[in-house]
């Protein structure tokens, strides 16, 4: 079996619960259909990911308001109330992270799609972000997953051999991009599934 010496964590959706619905369900008075439509057609994930790659939040908001003026009030909520989209840590995964670090057997780093303008909020809120050997933040690098460049940056910066690394992410597209570079990958569903999958690599005794 290949010796695993490095674990690469995604953050949002794996260690941190982040969901725009926390803001927009309230904005649309609990109407799930309106919320779903708005997030699929106006403030889309593709639009938000552009800011993850370094595009300024203020300009992105202005651009979208010009495109959809009827939704100005709601569009401005996306980054205006962004902090309320942070739902807290995903406790089970944080426990796994602690177990990996406490074992002192692995290099543990993070690779996240995150705006450099909002990432300091997360740094201030979640103490476990200080546990990593380092974090590659897409907004700082001006590129994002699933583009090859950001994986190459991560591998180079932390001297990682892809064959000896596991990448954990909740987005299948990002998982496939990592696998294309020879990195082992786990498509995250929940902490129980993650712990079970890590055992297949003979990584046991986690919290």
- Spatial order of the strands in the main sheet? 5-4-1-6-7
Regions with little confidence, pLDDT below 50 for 5+ residues: none
Q: What is the typical, i.e. mean, pLDDT?
A: 96
For the termini, the CA-CA separation is 23 Å
Query: If you compute it from the alpha carbons, what radius of gyration comes out, rounded to the nearest whole angstrom?
Result: 18 Å
Question: Pairing-aware structural class of the strands and helices?
Answer: alpha/beta
- Helix tally equals 11
Percentage of residues assigned to helices: 40-55%
Q: What is the strand tally?
A: 7
Q: What is the H/E string?
A: EEHHHHHEHEHEHHEHEH
Fraction of residues in β-strands: 5-15%
**Shape summary:** globular
Please give the largest β-sheet: 5 strands, parallel
Describe this entry's structure for a reader:
The two termini are 23 Å apart. The strands form two sheets. The chain has a five-stranded parallel sheet with strand order 5-4-1-6-7, with helices on both faces. It has a two-stranded antiparallel ribbon with strand order 2-3. The model has no long low-confidence stretch (mean pLDDT 96). The protein is built from eleven helices and seven strands. The longest helix is centred in the middle third of the chain and has 13 residues. Helix 4 runs antiparallel to helix 5. It is α/β, with parallel strands linked by helices and 207 residues long. 47% of the residues lie in helices and 14% in strands.
């Amino acid at each position: 079996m290949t010796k695993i010496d490095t674990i690469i964590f995604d953050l949002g959706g794996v260690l941190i619960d982040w969901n725009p619905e926390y803001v927009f369900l309230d904005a649309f008075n609990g109407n799930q259909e309106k919320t779903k439509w708005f997030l699929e057609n106006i403030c889309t994930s593709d639009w938000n990911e552009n800011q993850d790659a370094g595009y300024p939040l203020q300009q992105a908001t202005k651009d979208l308001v010009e495109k959809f003026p009827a939704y100005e009030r709601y569009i401005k909520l996306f980054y205006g109330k962004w902090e309320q989209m942070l739902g807290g840590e995903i406790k089970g995964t944080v426990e796994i992270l602690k177990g990996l670090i406490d074992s002192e057997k692995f290099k543990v780093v993070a690779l996240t799609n995150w705006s450099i303008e909002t990432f300091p909020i997360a740094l201030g809120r979640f103490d476990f972000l200080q546990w990593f050997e380092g974090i590659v933040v897409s907004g700082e690098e001006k590129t994002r997953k699933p583009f090859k460049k950001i994986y190459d940056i991560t591998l180079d910066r932390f001297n990682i051999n892809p064959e000896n690394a596991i990448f954990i992410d909740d987005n299948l597209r990002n998982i496939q991009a990592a696998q294309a570079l020879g990195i082992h990958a786990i498509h995250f569903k929940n902490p129980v599934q993650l712990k079970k999958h890590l055992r297949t690599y003979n990584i046991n005794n986690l919290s």
